[in-house]
# Entry
Amino acid sequence: MIIAMDGPAGAGKSTVARRAAKALGMHYVDTGAMYRAIAYGIVKSGTSEADAEAVVEQMDIDVRYEQDEQHVYVAGEDVMPFIRTQEISDAASRYSAKPYVRAKLLETQRQIAKTYEVIMDGRDIGTVVLPDADLKIFITANPAERARRRALELEMRTGEKQNVQAIEAEIRERDYRDSHREIAPLKQADDAVLLDTTNLSIEEVVQEVCRLAEEKKHA
Ligand code: DC
# Structure
């Protein structure tokens, strides 16, 4: 069983996909982390945007599953602790629009879906990476709600009060960039189920994903 889950930043995709994968005995595959890892590799190398293509071509990227958790290694280093900063989020958003970056990850992502039963989350999984997925789900929520959730998460992590308006502005900007880029823009696949989580708890969304998966399995 292959489940493709797409949607904008902050819709709760990764939390939902991780929990649903656990409940369904599947692998959770976070493709955003792969884009972040490439962005981290570029930033760390100090390369300018103009010279990044050669760096990406040479980059040694390895995705491994250890105790059911995905780890992305760049040149042998587990980069997971370093890829959630604002700097890397911005770089990932910019570099994920480059064809050479998407090409670098496409085969890796397809190979993982051949090896395991997966819930793969991203922006172009149902449309480009796994167009034949058994189930496609497009998860979204309105920008104000996504900003509220992100602020809560950051407050829990840092203990510092967050500016929700600023976060919402940044979310809108990233949505625009991800949806209007020329290559693999964020959009709902024609055959995807739309799941608007604005008024749902995480638990309710996880249950709905599991219900859709079970329904597909027995169809
Ligand atoms: O989901 P995320 O915020 O970790 O993703 C990081 C960036 O990578 C984000 O700007 C969108 C981009 N991305 C993408 O273009 N395609 C994917 N399949 C996953 C993420």
User: Anything to note?
Assistant: The radius of gyration is 17 Å.
